[in-house]
Design goal:
991 residues; alpha+beta; nine-stranded mixed beta sheet; flat
Amino acid sequence: MLSDDHRTIDFFAKDALPAPRVTPAEAERIAAEHLGITARAQSLGSQQDANFLLHADDETPAAILKIANPAFGTTEIDAQDAAADLIASARPELRIATVLRRPDGSPQRATVETGSGPAVARLLRHLPGGTLSGPRHLSPTTVAAMGTIVGKVSTALRDFQHPGLDRVLQWDLQHADRVVAKLAGHIEEPDRRAAVHAATAEAWAHVQKLASALPSQAVHLDLTDDNLIRCPESHPPVPDGVIDFGDVTTSWAVGELAVSLSSMLHHDGIEPHHVLSAIRAFHAVRPLSIEEAEAVWPLVVLRAAVLVVSGRQQAAVDEDNAYAKAALDREWRIFEQATQLPLPVMTCLVRDAAGMADVPNRTPQAGAPECPLLRGFGATDVTLLDLSADADAMDHGAWMDSGTEARLMASALADGAAAVATRYAQARLTRTQVLSEVSTATEPTGIELWLGRDALVQAPAAGRVLAAAPGRVELTYGTQVLSLSFPQAVQPAVSVGATVQAGEDIAHLTSGTSIHVALRAADGPAVPRLVRPEYAAGWLALTADPAPLLGLPADSGRPPARGLLDRRDAVFATVQGHYYANPPRIERGWRHHLLSTDGRAYLDVVNNVTLLGHAHPRVEQAVAKQLRRLNTNSRFHYASVVEFTERLAELLPDSLDTVFLVNSGSEAVDLGLRLAIGASGRHDVVALREAYHGWTYASDAVSTSLQDNPNALATRPEWVHTVDSPNSYRGRHRGPDAARYAPEAVAVIDKLAAAGRPAGAFIGETFYGNAGGVALPDGYLAEVYAAVRRHGGLTVADEVQVGYGRLGHWFWGFEQQQVVPDVVCVAKAMGNGHPLGAVITSKEVAERYREQGYFFSSTGGSPVSSVVGLTVLDTLRDEGLQANAVRVGGHLKRRLEALADRYSIIGAVHGSGLYLGLELVRNRTTLEPATEETTELCDRMLDLGVVVQPTGDHLNILKIKPPLCIDTLAADFFADMLDLALTQLGHAHPR
């Protein structure tokens, strides 16, 4: 027996708590002699206990043997087991590592002798699945799930009481200041030790102001990545299990959340803003009070400081504890991340995440000054410079030019403005950096002002000078601090400590001088001029718009992040989905870049609609010019429709000489099928499985993509007959055996004819786009086309995705197959984003359509559409974009193939030119699709500045089809970010 069954631990009465010294052989003996289980013991490591996984004879996990630190009494162990049982009962959806019990209900535990003295050993339920430990990036789904579990555990333990909870633990954040003071000497580096002391003092001061309002209850206090168990086979890893109740005690309830948040911060690619989804999830289960929300991040900092000092101490006193030593680097990373931003900034973000919009959360807006900041300047003298995504001045990629701000400022001054000012809290696209794995600081916390004439800066109200030096003045303005920055040559007219009255001179500025004006909370931290979008809400809450000081109206505040998305969902049919669960708001594009309204640049790898690149000037100018003249329907007589259709026909074999113009790929396929059926006089159609052709009745009827319609095969009309997808990678016939697809398809076609229902048409993509850019087997279309024609049918080539030079080596996909179809359907790339599609066939087939009536499309072939089509063809030729697809596409494919040699999750790299597909699998032999992993990868890539999406029936293929103007630098960025994301998500495997 332990010397005192009823004692509880007091950390401060102990010099150290080294883990019990127990070898695996000793653990096996303890399990056999005291707990009645014969098993092989595998050490799991622990900070202060000894944990072993016990394996049965067949090597399956049998139980966990936990040997508690000798400092812990049996009353404490009772409390831990009772807490685990309570949660298991209250939250049956969670798996809990409860103590195993004998037939009589008593726990399987015993007091045993160890090299460190007597200790309690017991058997606990083993939870399969593994922990979330390690550096792997945590996806938003995982982070939110962690927050949800913490909330559920907290609510389950709310009313739990037990004498074994009356403990003084070093992990209890109620004692964090004392723990750091006691153990900080173990940090050998003076700079790190000083940083820990400073952060602890600041965070502790914040918490003490709130402590009396923080509710206390029983807490697990260690719901970290080490103790949350993932659901077996969950992808991405999602926790549903809880282990290790060794730190159960009574403490601040909100500390439960802070402990979990801190454990997320060491994971690859995780920044403070990434953990906010855990706060939202926790708050949805167990609502935070205002005081608790304000305490969350100071407690995260305190937890980080305690981890650092405790880890250093444990490594020093327990030299053989590899677990403790291995944690030192990650504990320091947690501290660095926790202290990366000032506490007030993170506290504002926490309150935002908890939806506390009704709580005052920002510095009050500046009131009207007694005197304008610039003497003799009024609102009409100041021209506002718009540098946002909506600004016309950002057109034609001007935001990428480092001289744009200066050019626009000079132009406004030349036009007579007395001063030119930027806008507070409006993202400045001119500060955006493209091809960056992290966002750049684009959100201004003040106003930049350029003077067109001499000016005198005066005090807007009575105040005290806080700082005065060449190029800089700070003075109080009510409850705020007014910061003014000038060139270093400007000498202030005031001195530190002086009291100034409204209208008193501050500085004399000459024409051409720039001045930065900012207002911040007097008790807040120093604020950067520009901040990153993810943290802007936190920073801006500590500032105010200084515009009223210049006689201008104040900013109305940042709109709610989800406001526009909620409005979309309210009126725009939700079946018309959007990329990503929380999509960035994209309002501008340029070449192969997309820009969000907060100034984040994304590489566009998915947009095959904009063949030439976003916002191409030639297309814009051609459309504007034509709209100024005429836009009507094609029944009128005008030149552009003739010129465009001639050019289009010239790009095809001689037999395809007649063009229909429509508005989309769906319409093109629908019309193409009607032409084939009308010309052949037969209504049956043969189509490839796993293909998508459109949403109209006919184009949908021949679409069998399961992602576009899960019931596609079961709901085909009786006139549609499907043949196997000729997928040489994951179809029924793979590799060289893919040659069998064509004869099998021919057999289906012949069978239909023998049954008296010969196919009037065969439709298929000429390069399997929906399957991720998989080339058809050599000769496939030649055999199938021949069979269809032998029975009087026509062949329809769907070139909507792959045509127009995207494949690089071929302008049309059917060229790769060395065939000539009877009907070609094309769209997407034709208009570079303008709705434009076409069907090209022979005059004979086109004339047969008359038997079905006449054809007319109101805007298909309109003057504007025709001009757009001509401009796209001209630019495609003049800029050598098909050749660029060969060059850059080939380079990118080689980069992707090199990644496939390093990551076993990459099953194959499909495609040609700039129509590529990266297929992800869990097993290269079974080809089990890595569907969830692909979704997680796309989300991570978005965070890294790349827009890419999945395709295929299993949504496990990255569709890589960027604008054809993409360059090698951007292609390398995509490959580099893919490499980084795959590593961060734990997919790296030695070859």
